[in-house]
């Protein structure tokens, strides 16, 4: 079971973190997640991924200001860098992360 504390610990202890908010009833969430994970794997070596099922962990999404799904939050060096909700393409997410990630890891 996820907790706000666990997610915040992951964000603080890792250079690059994606928090993925979804729910079992969200078809877009299920289609998008494997594509995003595959793209992160292919492009970035140290991305840590936390998945939050908002139907189970109901307090986490509001804590992060997430009110629609799917939502992706990208944290770089402990700070929120990117927030995408609902309509997003995998390419767009990867493109926005690439340059700052490369600068941080070079």
From TrEMBL:
<dbReference type="GO" id="GO:0015035">
    <property type="term" value="F:protein-disulfide reductase activity"/>
</dbReference>
<dbReference type="GO" id="GO:0005737">
    <property type="term" value="C:cytoplasm"/>
</dbReference>
<dbReference type="InterPro" id="IPR036249">
    <property type="entry name" value="Thioredoxin-like_sf"/>
</dbReference>
<protein>
    <submittedName>
        <fullName>Thioredoxin family protein</fullName>
    </submittedName>
</protein>
<dbReference type="Pfam" id="PF00085">
    <property type="entry name" value="Thioredoxin"/>
</dbReference>
<feature type="domain" description="Thioredoxin">
    <location>
        <begin position="1"/>
        <end position="102"/>
    </location>
</feature>
<dbReference type="InterPro" id="IPR013766">
    <property type="entry name" value="Thioredoxin_domain"/>
</dbReference>
């Amino acid at each position: 079971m996820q907790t706000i504390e666990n997610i915040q610990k992951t964000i603080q202890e890792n250079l690059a973190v994606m928090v993925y908010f979804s729910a079992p009833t969200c078809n877009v969430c299920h289609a998008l997640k494997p594509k995003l994970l595959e793209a992160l794997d292919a492009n970035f070596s140290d991305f840590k991924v936390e998945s939050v099922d908002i139907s189970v962990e109901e307090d986490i999404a509001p804590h992060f200001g997430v009110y629609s799904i799917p939502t992706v939050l990208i944290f770089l060096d402990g700070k929120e860098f990117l927030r995408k909700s609902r309509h997003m393409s995998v390419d767009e997410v990867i493109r926005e992360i690439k340059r700052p990630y490369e600068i941080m890891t070079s």
